[in-house]
Amino acid sequence: MQADFEEGANIFSGGGEGAIPRRPFGGGRAAQLNACPTLITQAEDDALTAGAGAVFDALTGPRTLMRFTAAEGADGPCEMGSHSLLNLRILAWLDRRFEGGG
User: Fold this and answer.
1) How far is residue 41's CA from residue 51's CA, in Å, rounded to a whole number?
2) 65: DSSP letter
3) Which of 90, 96, 29, 97 is nearest to 60 (CA)?
4) How is residue 76 annotated by DSSP?
5) Domain range holding 67?
6) 83 domain-assigned
7) What DSSP designation does 86 have?
8) Region annotation Disordered: residue ranges (predicted)?
9) What is the spatial distance between Cα 42 and Cα 40, in angstroms, rounded to a whole number?
10) Number of domains comprising the chain
11) Is residue 64 one of the residues assigned to a domain?
């Protein structure tokens, strides 16, 4: 448990909720232990989410990789071009998780 906490602290530099990772999350032990449904978003032309596919591959539990494109107007950092599309798709994903029990 302490090792997992230290891995998180190293990734997020102790910045608390919403902290920006100071190094890319590569998965590691934390990804292998995660059993809860996980949603990973990846926006085209966003350097912060360039490694999303590797994180997705490292996860062993239920997971979804949700991509956003320039054609949708949701490329760039944090899907800034279309927060309404981002919110719609994330909330729909959550609805499906709660309807199906996971």
Assistant:
1) 11
2) E
3) 29
4) S
5) 36-102
6) yes
7) H
8) 1-27
9) 7
10) 1
11) yes
Bridge partners of residue 38, in order along the sequence: 63
Amino acid (1-letter code) at residue 44: E
What is the residue whose two structure tokens read 């920006």? Answer: 20
Which residue's entry shows tokens 């490292």? Answer: 58
26 residue type, one letter:
G
Under DSSP, the state recorded for 37 is: -
Q: Is 73 helix (H, G, I), strand (E, B) or coil?
A: coil
At residue 67, does pLDDT exceed 90?
yes
Residue 51 lies in a domain: yes
Size (the chain), residues: 102
Residue type, 101: G
Cα 6 from Cα 39, distance rounded (Å): 23
CA distance 69 to 83: 13
Find out whether 4 and 30 touch, Cβ atoms under 8 Å.
Answer: yes
pTM of this prediction?
A: 0.67
Burial (CB count within 10 angstroms: exposed 0-12, middle 13-18, buried 19+), residue 3: exposed
Per residue in 28-53, pLDDT (tens digit) is: 666 777 788 999 999 988 888 888 88
Structure tokens at 43: 């926006």
Torsion of CA 59, 102, 11, 58, to 10 degrees: 0
